[in-house]
Amino acid sequence: MATANHNLSNYDKNTIPNAKDFRFGIVVSEWNDTITNGLLRGAMDALLDCGAQEKNIIKWDVPGSFELIYGSKKMTEQYVDVVIAIGCVIQGETKHFDFVCEGVTHGIKELNLTSGTPVIFCVLTDNTMQQSIDRSGGKHGNKGAEAAIAAIKMAELRNK
What we know:
The chain has 160 residues and is an alpha/beta fold. Helices cover 42% and strands 21% of the residues.
């Protein structure tokens, strides 16, 4: 597994642009909220640590991961430099997992190609709840922090 020997929360602040002048949109799925709230905390902590101002961070909730696409699209229509889409889909007994994961992946890809505002994919697609716990503040760190660092870098790229 890709994160087995990698802490998702580690970053070198010296290699990251100062985030104080960027506006961030965060769209968070309410489904699997113990996980998505952990990812949100990781993202917020990293953004603030890198200079983002709390007043420049807009957070919206959506019911589930599939709705991240529409929420992110609407967020790109606001004045933000970058959007972070936070969700968690855990493998179940049906093909629903496959449809949701594929739809969200393609939807966020399309937004990146068409909106002019970067949308960061912070959607865990794990086989078990434990894997999600491990990646949302557990033993592998926090994918939310990793997404925040990507967001800062993409906001800088967008504004060049």
